[in-house]
Amino acid sequence: MINKIAASIAEALADVRDGSTVLIAGFGTSGIPAELIDGLIAQGAKDLTVVNNNAGNADHGLAALLKAGRVRKIVCSFPRQVDSWVFDELYRSGKLELELVPQGNLAERIRAAGAGIGAFFCPTAYGTELAKGKETREIGGRHYVLEYPIHGDVALVKAEAGDRWGNLVYRKAARNFGPVMATAAKLTVATVHEIRELGELDPEAIVTPGIFVNRIVKIPRVATQGAGFKKAA
Amino acid sequence: MAYQKRTKDQLARRVAQDIFDGAYVNLGIGMPTTVANHIPAGREIILHSENGILGMGPAPAEGQEDYDLINAGKQPVSLLAGGAYFHHADSFAMMRGGHLDICVLGAFQVSAKGDLANWSTGEPGAIPAVGGAMDLAIGARQTWVMMDLLTKKGESKIVERCTYPLTGIGCVKKIYTELCTLECTPQGLKLVDTVEGLTHAELEKLVGLPIAA
């Protein structure tokens, strides 16, 4: 019998190794798998490369993982936020390597990894600093930059509901990077707030089919907190 | 003759006036976001947010915020009836694939031929951040810039060649400012309109570049 439901976050993350590339879903705090990040801090894996759209907010979640000194390199599109002081300090003091990637390239490079694409030509960033040193090609009169996939050893995803086969649905814009990251890692772990019986999730509406998911853990529902933006004066 | 600058609201209204009925539009963080408040009555437009929303609606009432439903600036928004959620790769396929009709972005500088600089001032020690700017700039069918023409020092932000790091090459089609609306073409700038009382010659002097009538 297939049963991807793990009893606890500790069990789900037990075999994450030092030096892993960890894809962490979320856009700001929306869709960020905070409980899994806390679990990763407790688990102790170090020398990690983290792939996330941002680089942590305030002192919790991803920022806490950075602060704990577990991360060697971060791959993201937008590290600078009003409350990204943990990242700012580590980056400025040279303790954290940054690979800055345009957001669409980040998503597409992860998608490529999950889809078995070796590399792809993308028009984004052509002629800019972020394409420096990269191979380019003119195709049909347009300029493209060669981009390589981003493979994960582990993907951490926050979903809304799932079943024992690993099928997932998400909530609102918290979906963001979850479905693409789930496809691109050797081990994909998702948290859900509800576990459904097989057949209860509408097969027409399943966003991530279970083949992309290795483990799911049920966690209590806590409302997502706002972060990373400046309140209007 | 004296002339009046467009206020922020007037500028937003000027941009909104050119957004056609049925357009799929991405409004960048900051000033462009305010364009949504000025869409002329009777036009139905669909707003895209790069974190996976089409049919984005206005900010919810206080106390109704849901932080799983935020815009690219990470502020709470709502979803209109008919709206949809999707993942990030689909969201950026909508840009790069040429499905998005218009994006409106802010800028540090725009060149006469439409090069855009809006992601980095290139200052040493500054923390770089690009987000979706480069994907949007080259992906939307039309990229419009909305900005003040003049810096606080009175220098034109429309330049012959950008000195700030580039976001995209030749991608800006129109520039909306507090004083004028211009088109960027491979041959250079073309005048669309100026505020009342500002002559073509005076505008060319402020910009420091030739502007075709």
Explain how this protein is built.
The complex is a heterodimer of chains A (233) and B (213). With 233 residues, chain A is of the alpha/beta class. Chain A has one domain (9-119, 149-218): Glutaconate Coenzyme A-transferase. Helices cover 20% and strands 25% of the residues of chain A. Chain A has helices at residues 9-12, 34-43, 62-67, 85-92, 103-115, 178-183, and strands at residues 21-24, 48-51, 71-76, 97-100, 120-122, 136-139, 142-147, 152-158, 161-163, 168-169, 185-192, 194-196, 215-218. Chain A has a seven-stranded parallel beta sheet, sandwiched between helices. In chain A, strand 2, helix 3 (62-67) and strand 3 form a beta-alpha-beta unit. The longest helix of chain A has 13 residues, at 103-115. Chain A is globular. The model of chain A has no long low-confidence stretch (mean pLDDT 96). Chain B contains four helices and 13 strands. A ten-stranded mixed beta sheet of chain B has the order 4-3-2-1-5-8-10-11-12-13. Chain B has a three-stranded mixed beta sheet with strand order 7-6-9, with no helix packed on it. In chain B, helix 2 runs parallel beside helix 3 (133-139). The longest helix of chain B has 10 residues, at 8-17. Chain B has one domain: Glutaconate Coenzyme A-transferase, CATH 3.40.1080. Chain B has helices spanning 8-17, 88-96, 133-139, 200-207, and strands spanning 24-27, 46-49, 53-57, 78-85, 102-105, 109-111, 116-117, 142-146, 158-159, 172-176, 180-185, 188-194, 211-212. In chain B, 45% of the residues are buried. By secondary structure, chain B is an alpha/beta fold. Classes of the chains: A alpha/beta (233), B alpha/beta (213). At the A-B interface, helix 4, helix 5 and helix 6 of A face helix 2 and helix 3 of B.
